[in-house]
Amino acid sequence: MFKNPINLAFDKLTAMLNEPKWLQQKRRDALKKFQQYGLPSRKLELWKYSNIKKLEKLEEATDSADGNDYFIFTIEGDLPKDTQMQDILQVDEKNWKNIKTDQQTTFVELNTAMLNSGFQLSIPKNAQLKLHVQYQQVSKDWQNIRTVINLGENAELELTESYDYDCRINHVSLINLATDSRIKLQSNKHLRKTAALLHFSQINCEQNVNIQQGTINNNAAFSHCITEVNFNGQHSKFNAASVNVAHDNCHISENIVTNHQVQNCKSNVLKRSLATDKASIAINAKAIVAKGADGSDVAQSLKNIVLTDDATIYSRPELEINTDDVIAAHGSTIGELDETSLTYLRSRGIPKEQAKFMLIESFLQDANIFKTEDFLDKIEL
Amino acid sequence: MLNIKNIHAQVGDNKILKGLNLEIKAGEVHAIMGPNGAGKSTLGNVLAGMEKVEVTQGTIDFLDKDLLELEIEQRAAEGIFLAFQYPVEIPGVNNMYFLRAALNAQRKYRGEKEMNSSEFLKLVRTKIIQMNMRDDLLRRPVNEGFSGGEKKRNEIFQMSILEPKLAILDETDSGLDIDALKIVAQGVNQLRNKDRSFIVITHYQRLLDYIVPDYVHVLADGKIVRSGDKSLALELEKTGYSWLED
């Protein structure tokens, strides 16, 4: 994607796909738009601390999954009646959902242009489903995956997503939540230090929706994620926690933009990040409260630990409030491990390395909103 | 048990201990009193191995080992316990988890078998009743949200679990009401035996009514300037420290 001329890659993909004309036209338009936007520059807010040139320097992915399946689905229990699962390339034109883009989300256009895999899942009202999706890396090339989830009224979904540890994925996910629906999203990104992931996620909520989102970003040569939450109906709640851990030369950028467009919605964003060696992490939590969106409740807590002199963390909580009656709190800290706490643990006989581990573990556990026991098992501490 | 000879110590450029000598035998309780800034807490910090204090001269033998050669955690495993004047809050680290990790780290250091969770729970249940502590405090993060009295009681509770050979109580009575003071003193007295020694650092004679010392020392300007029995504490209560200026 970054080494080959994009037009050639597009033509090659087009020749392979047996797609309807409208989709091919959409892909062609998206390619044109991507080329107009260009690659995101560091002048853009969500890309300020991410150097896209790093992607060009990446070696090719070395591992690929067996077979040709892009996904492995595991469904707990029975699939609810009337649930629809469809290949994204087979979706009707009337069911295709466009995503509004700008320069910051240019990779959404690239995803559309080069779309080679994905699914659309529609869960009917009152249904419940637990689903695990593993995104596979099937070749050395970049994969452009799109997932669309439509959750019906009063429906409930528990979705756990995990990514191939040596992936090259540009993933766009679109989640539409109807009134009174509930979703638990756990995204496990335990990646190799040579992997790359671009992830744009848009969540659109009607009324009284409850979203819980837990994310683990564990390494990657380059990982850039943007989550956009749009409150379109009142009394919805978004509770998000992420843990971000980067070693060696890894780079992780985690961005959440919450749009409080209507009254009485609540967002709570908590991020715990730890960088060591020469790694860098960029954290951005932005909440925009529109004029008239009174009764909004916004909280952002970004805490960061830098373990070495060469590691860097950029942390930015941001509130843009355009109305009066709002509860809002935000905070960000960056520091080393607390020496006083470390000394206290050691004074009781706990060796230094074990004491450090205990402090790091407790720091990261703050973000374990689903209280899973194996939360930190795959993280190198 | 403990032999401190001509210890000089400083924090940054500030020289605090200036030739302190002290010998403590097994089973003895020594009270250290003195005016503010005399170096009482620094003495506790030197013994526990706090890195902010630099020892520039002198020797400390503890059970035939050179204490100054040991790291903080090694000193703890050898049997030194410092009850902090200001116990540290550690959000996210569960009290039980912390204590078991500490106990097993010490046992491992000494070549003893580590304690499994059911054995540890049994031990904790016995001790918590003795310390008159609420058991919900054990499930909470270390000292987080504890009152001043609860923090001090938690220090003594930790001591009762870890069973040190030498316990240093650094102003454990500060900030305690009379009932909490009695409970803390009771906890300490339960741990007194012929093999365990205590250094009780305090400003007030009141604590020594409950933890009766074998010796009382006055520490002033980085040295022990006077030693005596419990009656010395009563005398200090009456006279204060103005005589030091003479």
Helix-strand layout with pairing:
The complex is a heterodimer of chains A (381) and B (246).
Chain A: H1 6-16, H2 21-37, H3 53-56, E1 71-76, E2 84-87, H4 106-113, E3 117-123, E4 128-135, E5 143-151, E6 156-163, E7 168-177, E8 182-190, E9 196-205, E10 210-218, E11 222-231, E12 237-246, E13 251-260, E14 266-275, E15 280-289, E16 296-306, E17 312-321, E18 326-335, H5 339-346, H6 352-365
Helix pairs in contact in A: 2-4, 5-6
Chain B: E1 2-11, E2 14-24, E3 29-33, H1 40-48, E4 54-62, E5 65-66, H2 72-78, E6 80-83, E7 90-94, H3 95-109, H4 117-130, H5 136-139, E8 141-142, H6 148-162, E9 166-170, H7 178-191, E10 197-201, H8 206-210, E11 215-220, E12 223-228, H9 230-239
Parallel strand pairs in B: 3-10, 3-11, 6-9, 9-10
Antiparallel strand pairs in B: 1-2, 1-4, 4-5, 7-8, 11-12
Overview features:
heterodimer; A: 381 residues; alpha/beta; 9-stranded mixed sheet; 18 strands; globular; B: Rossmann fold; 6-stranded mixed sheet; 4-stranded antiparallel sheet; 9 helices; 28% strand
Description:
The complex is a heterodimer of chains A (381) and B (246). Chain A has 381 residues and is an alpha/beta fold. Chain A has helices at residues 6-16, 21-37, 53-56, 106-113, 339-346, 352-365; strands at 71-76, 84-87, 117-123, 128-135, 143-151, 156-163, 168-177, 182-190, 196-205, 210-218, 222-231, 237-246, 251-260, 266-275, 280-289, 296-306, 312-321, 326-335. Chain A folds into 2 domains: 6-336, no CATH class; 338-381, no CATH class. Helix content of chain A is 16%, strand content 42%. Chain A has a 9-stranded mixed β-sheet, covered by helices on one side. In chain A, strands 2-3-5-7-9-11-13-15-17 form a 9-stranded mixed β-sheet, covered by helices on one side. Chain A is globular, with a radius of gyration of 21 Å. Chain B is an alpha/beta fold. Chain B has one domain: P-loop containing nucleotide triphosphate hydrolases (Rossmann fold, 3-Layer(aba) Sandwich). Chain B has helices at 40-48, 72-78, 95-109, 117-130, 136-139, 148-162, 178-191, 206-210, 230-239, and strands spanning 2-11, 14-24, 29-33, 54-62, 65-66, 80-83, 90-94, 141-142, 166-170, 197-201, 215-220, 223-228. In chain B, the strands form 3 sheets. A 6-stranded mixed β-sheet of chain B has the order 6-9-10-3-11-12, with helices on both faces. In chain B, strands 2-1-4-5 form a 4-stranded antiparallel β-sheet, with helices on one face. The relative contact order of chain B is 0.19.
